[in-house]
Design goal:
mainly beta, Jelly Rolls, 2 domains, 10-stranded antiparallel β-sheet
Amino acid sequence: MRVWTQWLVVAAALGYLGVRSVGGADAAWVDLFNGRDLTGWTPKITGQPLGEDKFGTFRVTDGALAVGYEKYDGFKNQFGHIFYEKPFSRYRFRCEYRFVGEQCPGGPGWALRNSGVMIHCQQPETMTVGQSFPVSIEVQLLGGNGKDARHTGNLCTPGTNIVMGGQLVTRHCTDSSSETFHGEQWVTCELEVHGDQVIRHLINGVEVLRYEQAQLDPNDGDAKRLIQPGQPLLLRGGYVSLQSESHPVQFRRIQVLELAD
């Protein structure tokens, strides 16, 4: 009986540690979006100062945080991001997204059914008015075009580099191993972020990409402004933002679960 009891205690302790290592039960997840308005979120559109969104790019539609371009007179490279008010370092993030409707006229060809979740973002107040993308790690979200394979949950690196397989990776984008999602179905994107260490991308619960040591790119003009003499290039955390890149997209169930160190 004593051995059995001791085994239960050890098992319970291991279970507790395991739960903490991946974030715990769903009850610990915190909603970043309330489904009613954009409280806690601030837009930054290329060519406009922080907090201004004169064409109503970001709005709430049927309980989703929606991105649309009905008031645009052509896209004209007006890339946008909407930032959550609090930075994070070690956490799990998840949301559901779907692409809807048609791309805004004038949007670049590569932006068809293209959006993203930006993590480790620079402080939004440090972006210039004309800056198109925050220095960040982009979890690129792509929708299928109806015929071709098109992975989602990819990695792009505006102003940053990463390490993968022990090697510094300086190319801008790296494909994931995800399947392709055509149509307007909802897809779940989940991230597990451990500061300046491992970052994992999961799509519908399946890991599709893993890398580590996100860091500022000393050769990038926007990143150079953020590099402090004598300070490491590694990014230990930052803000989260959602993209507007010319194709209508919706996000819902946007949640975060902060992890213990």
